[in-house]
Each structure stands twice: as structure tokens, then as C-alpha cells.
Write a structure and sequence with these properties.
By secondary structure, the chain is mainly alpha-helical. The chain has two domains: 199 residues, no CATH class; 96 residues. The chain is 66% helix and 1% strand. The chain has 15 helices and two strands. The protein has a two-stranded antiparallel sheet with strand order 1-2. Helix 12 packs antiparallel against helix 13. The two termini are 48 Å apart. Pfam families: FA_desaturase (PF00487).
């Protein structure tokens, strides 16, 4: 089978920037050195580019998990051009196809089932899907966003201006243009590229399938550190409309923190979250499945499997009861004063079901730990 044509512009950009980052930057560091101001500027630009992709390109425009003020959208649009990862329109189109056809080698633009190299960078080096490079039917909603279309129209000018202009201006101000071009320009760009690309590659290979096995996406806390919270990818692929990726308080997700902080400032609105009961049920279903597989060869498999299913069914039943009364309670709270609710029979029922659910969770956890 004949391979698609090489996209020499992409190959040149990726190769040259990587060689400068791998050779010229260390050489400059040894022979000349970088001061703390230059390093801080490079880190700041890396964070700006990364968060523009995660909070802007990904969670805002690709998945519409929240709404943002025009001023914030402009900041994201400029940061995305600075990150040199194509326009919002093109990036979002690719990403929506990826989610709709994940792991389908014929349709998914960066299918992980075609291997690490392909999903990480190979898919951008050849004209694998040239037939749809200008087909944006799946992002018609974004074509109504004036900022998206402005960035798409002027993308080349913006990306050249920002990737050369910011390092040059900083270097001129700081008194070392060469160091600034290498550190703020080249190294920052390479790190921005490959940490983002890890989500397409490593996050579909390395980690846990906490919520679903229907696709290759994985949850990986270490990758979350490198990608501003995007490492909880298994959660994201089953709950893609949630503005969060790391849903626990201890999970590293600065993109979530940024979006929430901007909400307090009035810059973001309509933050979407997934129902708690659906998240918990998805996680428990995976625990049940793995426990059943583990017990299949046990001498007392039939008896243990029956007990496991009984504990699972009891827990799901109590989860349904608990979240049903919780939803009803929240509705009631909206309709009447808190004081009245606290005195109501519904509050007593809520507290009772909450206690029962806690006890059932302990029973389930105790049984699962005994199987370990």
C-alpha cells in the first residue's frame, strides 16, 4: 500500500525545533548559561500555551463544557497560536472526530491502536486524511464564534508574530536575544508540543481504565502533572462534557482550577459537571468486572461470585435511593427556606439513606479488600 505524501513543512518544523532544543539549548546553557528571569519567562510562556490548549481549545471549544467571556477567549486564541498547534477550528474538528470514532484506525485522526509513534506525532507528518483538511461540518457551532474565525483566518500571521515576536521582544528588553530565542522560543515550543501530544499517545497506553474499557484511554496522575490536568483521560472519554478531568480534590487539574477561578471573577459561566451517581456507578462497574475476572478460577468461584454480585446490587440500590432523595432535597431547598427543609421529614430520610449508603460502601470495600 502506497504511503500518503509527506508534509514537509510539518516535518521541518518538528525536526528543526527538536534539534535546536536538544543540541543548541544545552550548548548555550553550558557555554553561556540562562538566568532566573529567562527561565521564569520560558516557564510562564509554557504554562500560557498549555492552558490555552487545555482550557481553551479542548474544554471550551471542542467540548463546550463551559462558556467564557470574550476577553478570555481572545487570551486563549492568542495562546493557542503561540502554542503552534493549528487553529481552534481545525484542532476542535480533529478532536471531535477523535472522540466520536476513538480507536477506529480508518477515521480517528490519531488512533492509539496504530501505535505510539503514529498517535504521538506520525499522524501529522503525512497526508493521512487530506480529504477532510478543509471540511469543518462538525464544528459549525464554532464558525459562529467571531474570535474563532478571526484566529482561523489570521492563524499564520498570529503564530509567526507570537513565536518570534515574544522571544525577540523579551530578549531585547532583557539584553540577551539569543538566549531568549532558544529558551522562550524553541525549548518552550518543543515542550508545549510534546506534552500535549502525550495525551494522544501515552494517555491511551499508560495508566488505569478506571471508568470504562470501551476505549484505550487511561487515567494517569503523572501525565496530569505534565499536561495541566489532562492525564485523567479515561474519565474524560466517558464524561467528555464535564469541565473537570481530575474530579477528586487531590487530583492535579490546574485547568479545572483556572476555569473555576475565572467563574468567581465572572469570566466563565455554565460550568458543566457529570452526575455524581453516574460517575460512581461507572467506577463500581469496572471494579465488579475486574473482581469477577479475578474470581473466575477460584475453587469457590460460584459462591464468591454470587456474594460479589449481591454486594454490588445492594450498593447500587442504596446509591439510587441516596441520590434520588438528595436530588429531591435540593429541589425542595430551592423552593422553600433552609430552616423549613431541615425540619422536614425529607431531611430525616436523607440523613438515614446517607448513613445506609456509607455502611454499604464499607461492606463493599471490605469484601473487595478480602478478595485482593
Amino acid at each position: 500500500m502506497k504511503k500518503p505524501k509527506i508534509i514537509w513543512l510539518n516535518v521541518s518544523v518538528f525536526l528543526l525545533t527538536f534539534l535546536f532544543a536538544a543540541i543548541a539549548v544545552p550548548y548555550r546553557a553550558i557555554t553561556h548559561g540562562f538566568d532566573s528571569t529567562e527561565i521564569l519567562m520560558a516557564v510562564a510562556c509554557f504554562i500560557y500555551c498549555g492552558m490555552s490548549i487545555t482550557a481553551g481549545y479542548h474544554r471550551l471549544w471542542s467540548h463546550k463544557t463551559y462558556q467564557a467571556h470574550w476577553s478570555l477567549r481572545i487570551i486563549y486564541a492568542l495562546g493557542g497560536a503561540f502554542a503552534l498547534q493549528n487553529s481552534i477550528l481545525h484542532w476542535s474538528s480533529d478532536h471531535r472526530i477523535h472522540h466520536k470514532h476513538v480507536d477506529n484506525n480508518d477515521v480517528d485522526p490519531y488512533s492509539a491502536k496504530r501505535g505510539f509513534w503514529y498517535s504521538h506525532i506520525g499522524w501529522m507528518l503525512r497526508e493521512y486524511q487530506v480529504h477532510r483538511y478543509t471540511n469543518y461540518d462538525n464544528v459549525r457551532d464554532l464558525q459562529k464564534d467571531a474570535i474563532v474565525m478571526w484566529q482561523h483566518k489570521h492563524y499564520l500571521l498570529l503564530t509567526v508574530s507570537l513565536n518570534f515576536g515574544i522571544p525577540l521582544l523579551f530578549g531585547w528588553w532583557h539584553g540577551d536575544i539569543i538566549s531568549s530565542l532558544l529558551l522562550v522560543g524553541v525549548l518552550r515550543l518543543v515542550l508545549s508540543h510534546h506534552t500535549t501530544f502525550f495525551i494522544n499517545s501515552l494517555a491511551h497506553i499508560w495508566g488505569k481504565q478506571t471508568y470504562t474499557e470501551k476505549n484505550t484511554a487511561r487515567d494517569n496522575g503523572f501525565l496530569a502533572l505534565l499536561t495541566f490536568g489532562e492525564g485523567y483521560h479515561n474519565f474524560h472519554h466517558i464524561f467528555e462534557n464535564d469541565y473537570r478531568n481530575g474530579i477528586r480534590w487531590w487530583q492535579f487539574d490546574p485547568t479545572k482550577w483556572l476555569i473555576k477561578s475565572c467563574h468567581y471573577l465572572g469570566l466563565t459561566d455554565k460550568l458543566r459537571t457529570s452526575p455524581e451517581d453516574k460517575i460512581e456507578k461507572a467506577r463500581l462497574a469496572m471494579i465488579l468486572k475486574r473482581s469477577q475476572q479475578k474470581l473466575s478460577n477460584h475453587p469457590n468461584a460460584e459462591q464468591l461470585l454470587e456474594r460479589l454480585q449481591h454486594e454490588y446490587d445492594a450498593l447500587i440500590h442504596k446509591i439510587n435511593d441516596y441520590y434520588a432523595i438528595k436530588k429531591a432535597l435540593l429541589t425542595t431547598k430551592r423552593d422553600q427556606l433552609i430552616a423549613d427543609v431541615e425540619k422536614s421529614e425529607m431531611m430525616s430520610q436523607y440523613q438515614e439513606l446517607k448513613q445506609r449508603l456509607t455502611e454499604q460502601r464499607r461492606s463493599w470495600q471490605f469484601f473487595i479488600e478480602k478478595l485482593a
